[in-house]
Amino acid sequence: MERITSQQVEHAVNEFYVGGASQLQVHQWLKQAQCAPEMWEIVWTLLEKEGSSVEVKFFSAKALHLKITNSWSDVPLDQQDNLKQKLVELIERHVAGPKVVLTRLLMCSCSFIIHCILEQQSDAVKDFLSAMVLTRSNSPTLLLQLLTLLPEETEAANCKAEQRVTLKVELRKSLGNVLELIKEILEQEMASGEVGDASVDALRCLLAWIQFGISLDVLEPVCPIVLSSVGQAATCESALEVLSAMLTEAGSCASKLPETTFRIVSKLLSVEALLDQAEQTGATDMCRSIFSALLPVGEANSKLILQWLASDEGHEKRAVAIQFITLVLRCSAAPGHFPTDEAHSDQAFGFWYNLQDALSSFSWPYSSPGDDECQRRKESCEALLAPIQRSLVEVLLRKSCYAPDYDTWADDERESFRCYRQDIGDALVQCFEALGVELVRLLEAALMAGAARLQASNGQDWAPLEAAVHAYGHVAECLCRPQCDGIVPAVLLCLPCLVSSNNRHLLCSLFTMLGALAEWLELNPEFLPAVVHVLLPALAVPELATPASLAIKAITCDCWEALQPFKDDILTHCMSAMKSGKLRSSECVRLMYPVGRMLGSLPVDATLSAYLSTCLAPLVGDVQALLGQQPTEAVRDALVVQLRMFAMLAFSLDMDTARRTTQCVSVDEDPTTALMQPQEHAAQQQQQRGLKRRIAEGGGGLEVEEPIAQNRTGQAVVLMLQQLLPTLKVVVQHWAADPNVIEAVCNLVAKTLLSLDAGSSPALLADLIVTISTMYQLNPHPAVLDLCKNLFVLYDNNNNNKNNRPLQLQHGISGSTENNNAVATSRSDANNAALTAFLSQICSSTLVAFEATQDVREHSDMLEAFLVLLSQALRKRPALVLGNAALNHGAVFQLAVLALGLPEHGVAKAAASYLVSFVDHAKDTPALYNLLVADPCSPADIGAGGGAVLVDRIVKCAASDAVRSVLPCLAEVLLTLNKRFPDLLSRLLPVAAASSSSSSSMCPGDSEKARVVFVSGVLRERSSKARMAELVVNFASACRGLMNTEYGRQTSAMLIKDASGGSGRSPNPPMILWTALSVVLGIETRAEIIRGLPCVKMLHQLLCTRPGNTYPSQAIERFIDENKALIRRMYGEFSSPAEFFSFRGKRDSGPYEEFFASDIGQNSSSPDDFHQKFTNVDEIMRVRRATSPTSGPSASGQASAPPAINTDSSRVDACQSKTEVVTPYWASNSAGKIRAIVNTQHFEQAIYQEICQTGRQTSRCQGGCSCEQKYKWHRLLAYDPDNDCAGIFMDWFLFPSCCVCRCNIS
């Protein structure tokens, strides 16, 4: 690059903002100009030049910052004082603005100080501050701004670990002077009575140093003046934030410095007077700010507060603890209704949860948890907390009452109140842990008082009674605990009074509570008649159908044996409610569960057949009527609902002993029962219910459940399928082109396969295979391929003889062993032949479908499902694939090789899995061997076989074609090739690597060296997956010009770790992907590693590349299948994968922020950058690609993705941001606990977030304004992997919401 001049730079910057076709070239030139040696001189010229535009000055200031940060070695030691003086003069010149330039100059000063410290100049901070004080403009605000930026720049400094330690040590030496300056400024303004921006800046500076890491005892001297600032309107919010940060930041010294913590908390409680004043004047914002500071302190130090509470009577610490807890109780008892009258009482829930957890694991210093002293102290805490807990129960009952004007509330207010009541229920369960039976007595007293008020007001004052019933429903599951033996819920004794009220809210809460009592009713079946007679009539009332159907489903799940006398009534009311046409689709589907449970309890004879025909006939008639109508969206939706109803019936109709004892397991049940044999578990449940029945089998005296024994071979589902299959064939013929119908049919068939084995009805299963094959020929759909996997599992289980018995013995048919074995062998041969033909047809239809499309990426979901199916077949039933002459192995192989380079990680992983199985079997299979190796003895044939195509594709994908997330998949295929065909790989790999090396712009830099290291390393490695992944990742980094960049090093470390399951070797194990994330998200931020998870923590939340090995997907899927009603109650309707589609967008404020937000050295200019920013979002955030929405409304009632909002193109945002929709796997909840977010194949939860992309200021947001990231609490379904008994529950999680430009009040 030729020597540049200041005129050229100024012209280029101005040209950049003009726009046009040359803007990209100008951008690249400016980035290169920033690295030029002469830029040291140019920046001074441009910054000192009068009349320069803001853009030119900002570019110059940023270039100077980059020079000082990355090219410090260019500054001679004797010129450092001159550089410092120039910086001070420039700061003085720009004191009046522009703010964006001044901030960047202050960042330059911070970088100067950091480098001086690293050069052993211990007084660097003091010297620079002295130089600023000596200037004419020695404003304290300027010093505070510099000191505020200094800790942040230190944290962001790119230096070694030992240098970072040196920096922190030296900066902390200056802490005394910083605190004195802050204290002096605050005292001066307090004394003058004019508290303004200087005090706010001082508090912000103090907050930055607290977050930098300061011991609590060092901060104690400034605590009084900060407390005094709370009383000033201008500094109240900032002072409260500082006080909270003192006691909640990591390492808040609660354990190391408990006495210091106590003294600060004691002083913090002086804000109670300010709280009294705020409540008297109705200043709800002030109340919210005070509680926002207090409550995090309590949550972070709950164990310490309990230790204060356990102090000896009369001790000052006990009084402080009681005062603090009472203040939190005031927060919960805020007057008015949430969220219309007040909006801060919900903040206290986290404290109550943490306090109860701390009490459960109470410990006393210098004593073990089990000794007498610790137990005495714990009992003292419980005694002191008991009256507070009783008051809390009364408060929660009052706060959960509906407001008189509830019907006029907006939808978002109602949703907030619904979540608030859910939190109240969770808090009451925590109170049960402390109060036990006393809580039940309190709720019963509230029930009786509410019933009296209802009668006295002639049904008008119903809210207190409804709140008591709602609370009782949340603690209902606790009634099964031993301490509640003999307690009869009072609500069951006053059912007639409650039902006669005819209040919708009250009845809905009542029915929800009855469903929660299902486990208790199982132990006390004498109360079932009254409950059933209340619930069944409500099924016909549309307003009550949802809670009534949920309750009847839960009761039939747990109490199906005791409900036998009521089976006719249950079937009649359920079928009548569904025929009425008044229920929603979800309620109709839900009611099929109790229908199936009641039918499933009948013996397999004419009785079951008659009942089943009676129930199925009207439903089949409805389907046939729909088939006779014109195909419209309404008809399609109605048809899908009918198919979902059949699927629910099949699921609940016939479950064997093992599934019956696990499908309805309560969340509080002992998880060890899942490890019992099914008969043992059934016997234990029968003993608990007093319904034990002994059946002698061969003198063994085995205890089983008689209805299950009569119907344990899937015959009920066979009867259902025989009646339904002809209609399904017609549905497939008429609606094969509609993906929603196809998915519904596949779901139905998958549910039936759960109850069948390969010998249940050979003719029926053969007919079912023909139907599936026909459906796939008419419309190749991924759901059909997933169904085929279930079919292979069904036949694989029978083929492997997992039951270890011939089929006749399974059915109780006697016969000789030879005849039984002969029949089983004959049937197995017939099954293999049918599966072979079926697999051939599926493969043929798939290949035809892909030949008809121009781009396989448009059908990546089907490609992934197809390759997964073949991979599973090769692993479980290789004979079906390898011995299938009709299967076009060559075409499938080419398709898998093509899929290796697709950006979707799932597709590449499926392709790699198939190719690994393919190569494993190629050695012993002539057809595959000939396809992979053309002629291993002829050098002329090198490159003619499929092996050459595969190796060439792997190398090209690693070099440039594929996103980096698929590199471990490529390494796995290479490792298998080197194990099975080392000679072939040794000849093909050098040729492929050389071809990639000769390609222009593919392998810049040390390409030849990288190629040699890659080839030799791969050919040597035959055992370690981690080592092979490291070779491939390093080769890819070299080819893309990322080898010596921070981005390349850190992403390589994470990819290698993922490839080895978290245990592989990594070049830099402690490093984290914050640079990679900043490239993708467009932000400058820091992150920390989360051990054991493929996640980093940033923006106050976890960001995960994938679920990881510890993600409890199977447990989540199982719980969803077993508790669909509960999930619907918490979330809503289920949707199939096609009904969910995500989008991602980017909202740019223009190229100005885009250019100046990226730093040289952090954002690489390699050809891979553009691909990383957009295609590789799946690697970092699992942001789903946009897909076309389904036509018409969803059958489940869920809305599709929101449409684009047209904005005024003449207006731009002051802060640049990116908008994304992400589906998180892991997240940290409001209590700081890591939870698994429910995001599975059939159940997705998405978060819409907008993330700041620029720094603090932009050209449109400057002066007293700055860009800030805002956050929003989301309530998501979560799962605790450490507590399977908790099941799926709702929890609060914080995610970025928007990026705003906020300004000072002045």
From TrEMBL:
SUPFAM superfamilies: ARM repeat (SSF48371), Cystine-knot cytokines (SSF57501). The keyword Nucleus applies. Signal peptide: none annotated. SMART domains: IBN_N. InterPro entries: ARM-like (IPR011989), ARM-type_fold (IPR016024), Cystine-knot_cytokine (IPR029034), Exportin-1/Importin-b-like (IPR013598), Importin-beta_N (IPR001494), Importin_beta-like_NTR (IPR051345), Importin_rep_1 (IPR040709), Importin_rep_3 (IPR040520). Belongs to the importin beta family. Interacts with UBC9, RAN, RBM8A, eIF-1A and PAX6. Homodimer; disulfide-linked. This is Importin-13. It comes from Notodromas monacha.
